[in-house]
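Subject: design request, 103 residues
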């Protein structure tokens, strides 16, 4: 059984006990969060597609922790002008584990 869920503006294909990284969510480590924007559910070949969302369907997940992603280097240069700027960025993520899919 799997589901397509909209979490923090991104769509993820999730299964039970799967661990995924999503954009930063509010909440402490160990708390449970519920996602109601379920777009599709496949239960052993029985596919239910929402228009745009399924009613009475939800995904429950547990927050495992908050982490930072890999560093991304942003380098800007204009040739022959002596202009060089180097910046770095690390995105914040939340690691969650899918506990239950209700369809």
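Subject: RE: design request

Done. Sequence follows.
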């Amino acid at each position: 059984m799997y589901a397509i869920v909209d979490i923090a503006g991104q769509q993820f294909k999730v299964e039970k006990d799967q661990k995924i990284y999503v954009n930063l969510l509010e909440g402490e480590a160990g708390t449970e969060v519920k996602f109601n924007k379920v777009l599709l559910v496949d239960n052993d070949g029985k596919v239910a597609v929402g228009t745009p969302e399924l009613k009475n369907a939800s995904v429950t997940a547990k927050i495992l922790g908050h982490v930072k992603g890999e560093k991304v280097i942003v380098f800007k240069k204009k040739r022959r002008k002596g202009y060089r700027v180097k910046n770095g960025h690390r995105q914040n993520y939340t690691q969650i584990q899918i506990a239950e899919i209700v369809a």
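Residues 76 and 82 are 11 Å apart (CA to CA).
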